Amino acid sequence: QSSNHASIAVTVTPGLADVTQSTVTVSPPSVPADGSSTASITVTLKDANGNALTSSGGTMTFDAPTLGSIGTVTDNQDGTYTATFTAGTTSGSATMQGKLDGSNLTSAPSLALTVGIADLSQSTVTVSPSSLTADGSSTASITVVLKDANGNALTSSGGTITFDTPTLGSIGAVTDNQDGTY
Question: Which of 42, 79, 126, 160 is packed most tightly, with the most Cβ within 10 A?
Fold first, then answer.
C-alpha cells in the first residue's frame, strides 16, 4: 500500500505595525548637555502579537524634543528605523516620542542630558551682606554656585572649594552641600 503525500510551503508573515507593541530605544541613555553629543535612536516595529516586522511599516517621525534635535529618520526597510539625537546645551530629560503615520508609539523613552564639569568662568561667588562693620564679630555668608561651560548648575559635588586668606578677617570651614553649591 503506497500513499502519495504532497507538501505545501506556507509562509507566515507579521501583521500590520501596532503602536502599542512597537519599541523605541535610545543608546546611550544619557549624554552631556554640550551642544554636540549624540545618541542613537532605534525603532523596532511589531505587530499586535509582538512579531517584528520584516519590511517597512509606514512613515516614522518624532516630536521635536525640547533639549536637542533629531536628524533624518532612516527607514531600514526591515521593520526598523534609525535616527540620531544631538544634545542641546541645557541639562534635563528629553523624550523620544515616535509617531508611526502620525500615531504616537506607546514606547517613548527619555534621554538624560547631564551637566558637564565645573567651569570657573560660568560659576558664581556671592557675599551677603556685601559690607560689614569692622567690629570683630559681624559675619557674612559666602555662597559658591558651580556651573558647567553652558551655564547649567551642577547637581552634585564639584570638588573641594578653598578661599585665599582674607587680609581683614577670616573665613570659616567651607561646607559642600553635595548639590553644586558651597
Answer: 79
pLDDT tens track for 135-160 = 989 999 999 999 999 999 999 999 99
Distance CA 100, CA 137 (A): 68
Q: Residue 24: which of 39, 4, 37, 5 has the closest Cα?
A: 39
Distance CA 59, CA 50 (A): 19
CA distances from 150 to 30, 84, 109, 123, 153 (A): 17, 22, 25, 10, 9
Q: Does residue 81 contact residue 71 with C-beta atoms inside 8 Å? A: no
pLDDT of residue 139: 94
pLDDT attached to residue 28: 98
